Amino acid sequence: MVAIGLTLFTACGVDTPASSPSNPPAPGTTTVFTTLPQPSPTTSAPPSSAPQPPPSTQQPKTGKVVVLDPGHNGGNSGKPGEINKQVPAGRGKTKPCNTTGTATNSGYSEHAFTWDVAQRISQALVAKGIRVVLTRQNDTGVGPCVDERAAIGNDAGADAVVSIHADGSNSAGAHGFHVAYSAPPLNAQQGEPSVKLATALRDGLRAGGFPTSTYLGSNGLAPRADLGGLNLSTRPAALVECGNMRNAAEAAAMASEEGRQQYAAVITKAIEDYLAGN
């Protein structure tokens, strides 16, 4: 468990990945992970004295689908015309296509953090036989817009849609995570299913040692009517603000590989716990 100081996360800005996995998929296609790579078959049996290969790590497919939405994108800042265009945001509103996200005071970007954490969660879920779809394929592209991100989850028939973000509040003492969900609900999936997903994520992060937000929401949960990706979802959906990137202790955790792995581990377990009960 990563030791987190008193001050933690704030409201998210735009995501920028850090320590992105090598060989990212080409932009323009939705990344779908369904199986793990398998070892090449051998043409003859090894001598009895030879060490035996380890058992396969592939798990039986569960039939479950999770859409991971790493906030923002690394190319957003270079295309203001594209990301500032107005798109549907639900409840009769529009809002900018996307944003650039926030960053730590030392310059580690939200988009890098969310991309890295989402990759770690994806690999862990795929290893459990869960199909994973990512709303973006790398950390160098632009968008997609919030309405497109919602559509990816809807079209995939996702059992759970989880958006990964981090905040950038400059309020004194602002720290901690919160989990947002659409409220009041606009459809049945935004009701009990989304609240259960948000609660599972909140419980998982809290059990992992991460403190709840001191500045947004209540007890780690934040019902919101202004988030387009949640408003437009017809699947169980929640958005995790992992913490405040302007808080020194939380920024240090997010910028470290150990910290990102801890975030990924507790979020992965929370998603698994939610799927197991639904």
TrEMBL record:
Organism: Amycolatopsis decaplanina DSM 44594
Protein name as annotated: N-acetylmuramoyl-L-alanine amidase
GO function terms (MF aspect): N-acetylmuramoyl-L-alanine amidase activity
Compositionally biased spans, kind Low complexity: 28-47
Composition skew (Pro residues), residue ranges: 48-57
Domain MurNAc-LAA span(s) in chain numbering: 150-272
Protein keywords: Hydrolase
Annotated GO CC locations: outer membrane-bounded periplasmic space
One example of a Gene Ontology biological process annotation: peptidoglycan catabolic process
PANTHER family referenced in this protein's UniProt entry, alphabetically: N-ACETYLMURAMOYL-L-ALANINE AMIDASE (PTHR30404), N-ACETYLMURAMOYL-L-ALANINE AMIDASE AMIC (PTHR30404:SF0)
Taxonomy, superkingdom: Bacteria
Lineage: Bacteria, Bacillati, Actinomycetota, Actinomycetes, Pseudonocardiales
A Pfam family reported for this protein in Swiss-Prot or TrEMBL: Amidase_3
InterPro entries assigned: MurNAc-LAA_cat (IPR002508), N-acetylmuramoyl_amidase_3 (IPR050695)
Residue ranges, annotated region (Disordered): 14-103
